[in-house]
Fold this protein.
Amino acid sequence: MRPASRSGRPQAPSIPEMEQLMGRCTAPLRRADEVWPGLYLGDAVIANDLEAMKEMGITHVLNAAHSSWDCKGDQVVYGQGINYYGITAEDCPDFNLSVYFHTAADFIHSAVSSPRGKVLVHCVLGRSRSATLVLAYLMIYHRFSLIDALHKVSACRPICPNRGFLKQLQDLDLDLRCRWKFCILF
């Protein structure tokens, strides 16, 4: 978190600062990576490989590209063994993914909090939409600042949320910091 501005409000990192941080990632891009205990960030290929997910112990799937041509999963495909949540999101800067931040974070938290729960959060490549939702989860449930969440996730997997999603994460960061500051005062 950056120091507070003259107005006393905390400042989120700039988009160029975030892009520079993500650009320093040296982790290899794999089909799925565990970025937090029980939380995997991955692509559509792994999400369509039921056998691989079974081997990984995945119990929940959050698909951030539901209904796209690469991501055909749904509760019927996964059956009774995997809980499914699909978000029909576009990977474009104008798409408002922030309306799903809290419901996605709730789903992820429920999954990793359940006995032997493991969740795969994916989109087509596992780098923008799904990464954005994972970052929001760490910020909402674990009180990570945006910059700390970016460090945590990009240490495990190369990610690159689009600039619109980064702006939405900036707004979430500022909102959460102000809420927590207010809660501490009262």
